[in-house]
Amino acid sequence: MKEHEEFQAVSQFFKVLSDPTRLKILMFLKEGERNVSSISDTLAMEQSAVSHQLRLLRDNRLVKARRDGKAMLYSLDDQHVLDVLEQTFRHVLHQ
């Protein structure tokens, strides 16, 4: 990846993280796999809105999905996502 492309990719990563709803979804998924219904119930959101956010998170490789029968289960894509979130929260909450 060229340097310019790397900066673009990092910028896009933080743009995706900049939405509070997406952050809530990611933090909820740190507990493990969840389906859209579980996420929407927990966040008190419409399933269509959650699905839209999950699509953005998947497209940017922050979450992954797997089919279990008719249901799609979502989880964090890898440990790096959680590491970035935890470091960011530590930084923001640092006094």
UniProtKB/TrEMBL annotation:
Keywords: DNA-binding, Transcription, Transcription regulation. Transmembrane segments: none annotated. PANTHER family: ARSENICAL RESISTANCE OPERON REPRESSOR ARSR-RELATED, HTH-TYPE TRANSCRIPTIONAL REPRESSOR CZRA. Residues 2-95 form the HTH arsR-type domain. It comes from the Bacteria. CDD domains: HTH_ARSR. It holds the Pfam family HTH_5. The lineage of its organism: Bacteria, Bacillati, Bacillota, Bacilli, Lactobacillales. This is Metalloregulator ArsR/SmtB family transcription factor. SUPFAM superfamilies: Winged helix' DNA-binding domain. The keyword Secreted does not apply. SMART domains: HTH_ARSR.
